[in-house]
Write a structure and sequence with these properties.
Aminopeptidase, alpha+beta, globular, single chain, 29% helix
Length: 140
């Protein structure tokens, strides 16, 4: 159930090639998103920076990502503190990230990535702003 969808209509992006206003939606991760994420790494260095060596092999596969995110709960012991999210515009997957509750009212952002064909245009910033909004609205 996707009850926690957020949109970024109120935020503008100066270099937005997709539309005048960013109609970004941040939604819960789906298994099909892994195919996009796995194809966004230009090289192993970029991959290692993204995952901080949380994945063993490069290139990473969609199966590897789904195993980590879904089967292993992001390597988190507690069942309710790992939240993978996907950013879309017009239904097109353009980015991904995770929120992880680490205790003491602290949520960390991680595994942040944007489709390499649109990097440098403000989409990552928009995704992080939506994630911050998501964190405050959902977790308080």
């Amino acid at each position: 159930m996707e009850k926690n969808l957020l949109t970024g209509n109120e935020e503008r992006c100066e270099n937005n090639n997709m539309s005048d206003k960013m109609d970004m939606v941040l939604r819960p991760y789906k298994k099909m998103d892994a195919e996009f994420i796995a194809n966004w790494f230009e090289d192993e260095r970029a991959f290692r920076k993204w995952c901080s060596d949380r994945f063993e092999s490069f290139p990473v596969t969609a199966e590897d990502i789904n195993y980590k995110y879904i089967d292993c709960n992001g390597d988190c012991e507690e069942p309710d503190n790992f939240y993978p999210l996907t950013a879309t515009i017009g239904g097109k997957v353009i980015g991904s990230m995770i929120l992880r509750y680490v205790g003491n009212d602290t949520i960390r952002f991680g595994f942040v990535i944007v489709d390499d064909s649109i990097r440098g245009m403000g989409y990552g910033k928009q995704m992080l702003l939506l994630a911050r909004k998501y964190a405050f609205e959902i977790f308080g």
